[in-house]
Amino acid sequence: MEPAPAKAKPQGRLLVSTQLDARDELEERLERCVVIVQGLTNGLSEREANDALNASVCKGQQQHEEVCLGLFTLVLTEASQAQRCYRDLTLVNRDGMNVVLGKINQILMEKFLKLQDTPRTQLVWLVRELVKSGVIGADGVIMTLLKQIAGGDISAKNLWLAENVLDILLDQKEWVLKSGMLIAMSVYTYLRLIVDHGTPNLLPLRQKEVDFCISMLREKFMECLIIGRDLVRLLQNVARIQEMELLWRDLLHNPQVLSPQFTGILQLLTARTSRKFLACRLTPDMETKLLFMTSRVRFGQQKRYQDWFQRQYLSTAESQSLRCDLIRYICGVVHPSNEVLSSDILPRWAIIGWLHMTKNHELFPAETK
């Protein structure tokens, strides 16, 4: 008698997984919350369902969190119900959406690469709705979302994310102008991305990015000034674009046009760039991998990790522009303790050397033999 075949592991609706992957704890918890919400509302009219949800959230913090996360998960996984579930979420939440904002940030930082296509699309839709509703803390979510737009990556998914986040910023410009840090972070991000979008098929997107950056720089230059001297480098990289060339002329010869408080380019060059900006140009996954190499990997045992990183992020001609972002991050953000510096852990100079030495070999292998 043949043994019965093993049951296939049920595939969740939030994250991509294989038969070998253990069930994700976050996904399981969110699915339990969905079951709770469906148990409260199945078979009821919209008004009755709303009354049931309100009665549940009033019982305590745990019930409030379960209902909010259940509705949040339905927004991500059930596109046809998203509008109604978001409306219910705005009506029943009691904490200014803090539970939802926290979970969005967690997914963006830890699970974004594993999201299935529908939840990824719906997550951006939800962020747009939070911004339109003026939810306090939505600017922080946008900045986390900006971090997920990878430099040196012109894949369809990355371009889709770059354009959709840009559309949110353009459509909700008045809201954007209320946050100085969001203005600076978004200008820093899109000035960097413009460099990657120079091919003919990407020129419409690049023009939108240029228009956005010029608008922010001319209307809110003092907010952009907090970027520091790295703003000069970013502007130099795009200086041949006509609108940027005109901005450069004002920057050098007529700084008062940009802001009465701006005295000239020397004021910009003497301001250091915060590590927040350097870090924002690496995705959370890139950052995790680099920090692991600089804190856990022993010198001499790094090749397998470097090869993996190279295959994942530095294998195309377009991705070579990412190398300067990585080197700048290592120099400006990674500061090992004295204990690590005196140990046999992979030193920063070795990673920087690897990033320099592998560039030509990858692009021109025949010439480097």
TrEMBL record:
Gene Ontology cellular component terms for the protein in this record: cytoplasm
UniProt lineage: Eukaryota, Metazoa, Chordata, Craniata, Vertebrata
Residue span(s) of domain Integrator complex subunit 3 N-terminal: 62-361
InterPro entries: INTS3, INTS3_N
Protein's name in the database: Integrator complex subunit 3
Transmembrane feature ranges: none
One Pfam family in the UniProt entry: Ints3_N
